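In this section we walk through a basic example: taking a raw amino acid sequence and producing a predicted 3D structure, encoded as discrete structure tokens. The instruction is simple. Fold the sequence below.
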Amino acid sequence: MKLARAAIGLVLLSACSESKPVQPMVIFCENAIREVIAAPSSYMQLEAEEDWNTQKALVEFDAQNPYGATVRSVAACGFDRELGITAMVIDGRSVEVPQHLRSTEWKPGPLPSFD
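The resulting token sequence is shown next.
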């Protein structure tokens, strides 16, 4: 019994150690996506990346459309250090960014150093 618990603990520990680093631009982009899609509770991120040089985040996700069908989409969010999210495009169509996300709440901090 103790051996089984130890094995489960190791599996859980290894799963936790392989987690992705926090990506602040992706998090803000996901919040904006959830606010503009038809069924926010159905949102599921598939892949995401952010680029500190261009101040953009790309998010691939599945979510239900107004008819209940799951649809795969790609969103791109543009950022400004002072204004927060400045632009959002989902599947090639420009989407209005909710006003409260256009704020200085998004504070990315210093750019990461790759030295």
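Looking at the output, two observations stand out. The longest strand covers residues 70-80. DSSP finds two helices and five strands in the chain. In the next section we compare this with other chains.
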